[in-house]
Design a protein that fits this description.
Strand content: 15-25%
Number of domains: 4
Shape: globular
Bound molecules: adenosine-5'-triphosphate
Low-confidence stretches: 135-143, 146-157
Distance between the termini: 64 Å
Length: 780
């Protein structure tokens, strides 16, 4: 090898979409170039406009555009492929520069700006002399064809139209990190279409900054939320050091595996290119517990996975599993496992325990229960029946209501792990609507004691109860470890052979994990947190927590500092959605817009700065006459979407529509009805989303909103979004009069559910209803 070749991220993304014949020729090109960049067949020449860019022949029609990036430590010259273009798109105004904020190499193609803005700026793209076809040679200044993604015709904006970014100056844009070649033209943009076109082709930081400004963020907000997190410290003279800039740039090294890389296409992107904000969060060393927040699709799970991979790579060799990766949602555990296994080698994967939080708690209970003494789990609905029986027997005056007592038990007694009556008398009851006097607390405690005794006698317990019991065992275990360590410290280290607690069980007691990574953290209960806290010794990088409280769909609000987890000063936020289009995101954000959300601690959280660079059709809101009408319209839309998905691509390949579309409903009964009607009346096959993933082999996934957490679909329909269903008025109306705080909590949960559901869609979203629409829909 005489040259090392790397692939710029945007070039790689463009290559995924190219015809396979071009890809094959590109592999051959790379092979030849790495062996001899000066090979005459390649015809490597600098571009006339920017001599930092060279073009080389892939075949008679296609060109690789390359930037030389110094010489590596081994003396091998380094080249970066910044684009692969048809020769008619190679023109003098292409440029390469080093960004003044990120220090990354950026390729700027003015073709992305769109004809209307170029015209306003008085810029005419000129074919590179070496690429002029003979006919064009006669008309030297004929405008060049611009690349396909920029060829969308934008109507000429009115000459007098006000620039979209009128509130900014060129210096502001420079300071925010907009690529120099795009500063002046950005200020000439006068419509959203023009801005979208510019953003679609601009380098990453420029695209984000312009999107933020276009969405109405102030220069200061963009600086704080977009530019600063992406900034790096740069030495004087950095502008000319392409070798150093290459190290800072997200690239793929071209080696013999390139064929597999390109075959994996877009599915691979998350493994390789972390956004600078994501990367910083992944790579930072934290003195203790840390947290990442961010709206749906901003890559919290991706960050959690990379964080796990990084921690695993830093482990001392061994055979144990010092890292726990856990999540609240059962069907996401399998997804975490498969993603992590594609990110790290099997030997590192073997060091990570990937477990659903309830399975983890069950493991602790099994370990601590004598054979035959285990309790089986009971669902909340059944447990409430048992509580109802207790009330029937012990509360003849009907002073207490089952719902109220069950809520008090889960939220206050289990929620705060209150072990004694005295603890309960002293407990604060935040978020609980009805105040309780001391005698009332006494009576509540007595009834709930009867209730738990009854469950015990049945050898049953609820999920919440089992989590709480597991937390107690783990806290006790942690206490023993701490006590032993303290005693050891007291006697100045050495062995504790002479002490009473030297049984091997205690002697070899260790914390279960060195690092714990938690995804979907917003739904964990206080007991879960106490268990996790006790499972890892407090210390650097002990807990890494990813979650978004706007997506909390179970009634649990925990302040981490009250369960011994201190994230203050170690919390970061992601704002760029990789999943959802800006159009969907705008509407979804309105669903939760007015409510206040906690930050898993004492503060509040909001979605400010949440944005996307993806564009697509506006979500559709469809009022239907009745159920039949709703299903008929749904079926028609699913068929249309199917047609779009299966339309042959440029290279003739046809995508399999299975699992690309989904229908989301409020409850299981409705899911069944939709599946039956789609199949019987419209011939559409479906698969039902269960705890263990989709069941049944049909094309369209159907499930309740709870099941959609953490998932994503190219096209998504939410049906039955009517008032009375969202929220479930029949179930919660009673709280409006008896327990206003509970009522508020129920409303918020419903609102969050709709938010979660709507943000599962990648590029198309349909929401329909019959009767009155849900009050949470952004149509009111
Ligand atoms: N750096 C990246 N490059 C490419 N794709 C990314 C990147 N980060 C995230 N993604 C993609 O964005 C999508 C959303 O990511 P992820 O599921 O991690 O988001 P999230 O914040 O956990 O979402 P949610 O809160 O809705 O569960 C996924 O398809 C993921 O592969």
């Amino acid at each position: 090898m005489t040259a090392r070749l790397s692939l710029y991220q945007k070039a790689e993304n463009e290559l995924y979409k190219m015809d396979s014949s071009v890809k094959t020729k590109f592999y051959d090109f790379c092979h030849l170039f790495r062996n001899d960049p000066g090979h005459p067949k390649l015809d490597l020449k600098p571009l006339k406009g920017d001599r930092r860019i060279y073009h080389a022949k892939i075949d008679p029609s296609y060109r690789a555009l390359l930037a030389p990036a110094g010489v590596g430590p081994d003396g091998v010259e380094q080249w970066l492929v910044v684009a692969v273009r048809h020769r008619k798109h190679v023109y003098e105004e292409l440029s390469v520069a080093i960004n003044r904020v990120t220090g990354e190499i950026e390729f700027v193609d003015l073709g992305v700006v769109g004809q209307s803005v170029l015209k306003r700026a008085g810029i005419q793209l000129t074919p590179d002399p070496a690429e002029r076809v003979p006919l064009e040679a006669a008309a030297v200044r004929e405008p060049v064809a611009v690349p396909e993604f920029a060829a969308v015709s934008t109507p000429d904006a009115e000459p007098s139209a006000v620039p979209l970014l009128a509130a900014c100056t060129a210096d502001d844009l420079r300071r925010l990190g907009v690529a120099e070649a795009l500063v002046e033209v950005s200020l000439l943009v006068t419509s959203d279409d023009e801005l979208d076109q510019l953003v679609a082709g601009a380098p990453r930081l420029t695209a984000e900054v312009l999107t933020g400004l276009g969405a109405g963020m102030s220069v200061e907000e963009v600086e704080n939320e977009i530019t600063r997190p992406a900034a790096t410290v740069l030495e004087p003279g950095f502008e000319d050091d392409m070798g150093a800039a290459l190290i800072r740039t997200a690239v793929t090294t071209v080696d013999d595996d390139l064929r597999n890389v390109l075959a994996e296409g877009d599915f691979r992107a998350w493994k390789v290119y972390l956004h600078p904000t994501q990367r910083k969060i992944v790579e930072r060393n934290y003195s203790g517990a840390a947290r990442v927040s961010g709206g749906p699709g901003t890559g919290k799970t991706i960050v959690a996975l990379h964080r796990t991979a990084r921690l695993a790579a830093q482990l001392q060799p061994g055979r144990d599993k010092p890292i726990l990766l856990t999540t609240y949602t059962k069907n996401l555990t399998a997804d975490l496992r498969s993603r992590l296994s594609s990110l790290i080698t099997p030997d590192l994967l073997a060091r990570v325990d990937i477990k659903h939080i309830d399975i983890l708690a069950q493991g602790v209970l099994n370990e601590n229960s004598a054979a035959g003494a285990q309790r089986s789990l009971i669902g909340d609905a059944q447990a409430k029946e048992v509580l109802g029986e207790i009330l029937f027997e012990h509360d003849p005056q009907r002073r207490w209501d089952t719902e109220f007592l069950f809520d008090e038990w889960e939220q206050v007694i289990l929620g705060q792990s209150l072990a004694t009556r005295q603890d309960y008398f002293k407990a604060r009851r935040p978020g609980m609507g009805r105040a309780l006097t001391r005698p009332e607390r006494g009576s509540v405690w007595q009834l709930l004691e009867q209730f738990t005794l009854r469950l015990n006698s049945m050898k049953r317990e609820t999920w919440a109860q089992s989590a709480e019991r597991a937390a107690r065992y783990e806290m006790e275990r942690a206490r023993k470890i701490r006590e032993r360590a303290d005693r050891k410290a007291e006697i100045g280290g050495g062995d504790l052979k002479h002490l009473d607690d030297n049984s091997s069980a205690i002697r070899y007691l260790r914390h279960r994990y060195q690092h714990i990574v938690v995804d979907e953290a917003q739904d964990l209960s206080a007991a879960h947190w106490k268990m996790l806290r006790a499972m890892a010794a407090p210390g650097p990088n002990d807990l890494f927590i990813a979650g978004d409280t706007h997506q909390r769909i179970y009634d649990r609000q925990v302040t981490l500092s009250t369960v011994g987890i201190n994230i203050r000063g170690k919390a970061s936020k992601l704002t760029l959605s990789y999943r959802t289009t800006q159009e969907i995101l705008d509407q979804a954000a309105k669903v939760v817009g007015d409510s206040t959300y906690d930050d898993l601690d004492d503060g509040t959280e909001n979605l400010s700065g949440y944005h996307s660079l993806l564009r697509g059709p506006a979500p559709e809101f469809v009022a239907c006459m009745d159920w039949d009408d709703e299903i008929t319209r749904l079926a028609a839309r699913l068929k249309l979407w199917r047609e779009e998905i299966t339309r042959p691509g440029e290279d003739g390949t046809v995508r399999d529509p299975s699992g690309a579309m989904a229908v989301c409903v409020a409850d299981g009964d409705m899911a069944g009805r939709v599946a039956a009607d789609l199949s019987l009346k419209h011939g559409i096959t479906t698969a039902t989303l269960t705890k263990d993933g989709p069941q049944g082999g049909g094309e369209v996934h159907i499930g309740t909103m709870h099941r959609f957490k953490g998932l994503e679909y190219q096209k998504l329909a939410i049906v039955g979004a009517s008032d009375g269903i969202l929220p479930r008025t029949a179930l919660i109306e009673k709280f409006a009069h008896t327990d206003s705080k509970r009522y508020e909590r129920e409303l918020k949960q419903s609102r969050n559910l709709l938010f979660v559901a709507a943000t599962r869609a990648r590029d198309a979203l349909l929401i329909s209803w019959h009767g009155a629409p849900s009050p949470f829909l952004p149509i009111h």
